[in-house]
Specification:
There is one protein chain. The chain is α+β, with helices and mostly antiparallel strands and 64 residues long. It has one domain: Double Stranded RNA Binding Domain, CATH 3.30.160. The protein contains one helix and three strands, in the order βββα. A three-stranded antiparallel β-sheet has the order 1-2-3, covered by helices on one side. A hairpin with a 5-residue loop joins strand 1 and strand 2. The termini are far apart.
Length: 64
């Protein structure tokens, strides 16, 4: 089963994007977008960049 993007209401107002895998697990949650249209544009941005994005490991603090 394919994953999906969900647009969900943010508690603080606005909309968040959730990326869900095929098993129904949440893989990522976005920041807050002002409305559904802005969140839909955010989904497009995620799709365009995720496949080719590099990993920047900051798990041990900032890297130079």
């Amino acid at each position: 089963m394919a994953g999906k993007f969900e647009l969900v209401a943010a508690e603080q107002g606005g909309v968040r994007i959730r990326l869900i895998n095929g098993a129904g697990n949440v893989l990522a949650v976005s920041g807050i977008y002002r409305d559904r249209a802005a969140a839909a544009c955010g989904v497009t941005e995620i799709r365009e960049h995720a496949a080719t994005a590099h990993i920047a490991d900051h798990s041990d603090g900032p890297q130079e």
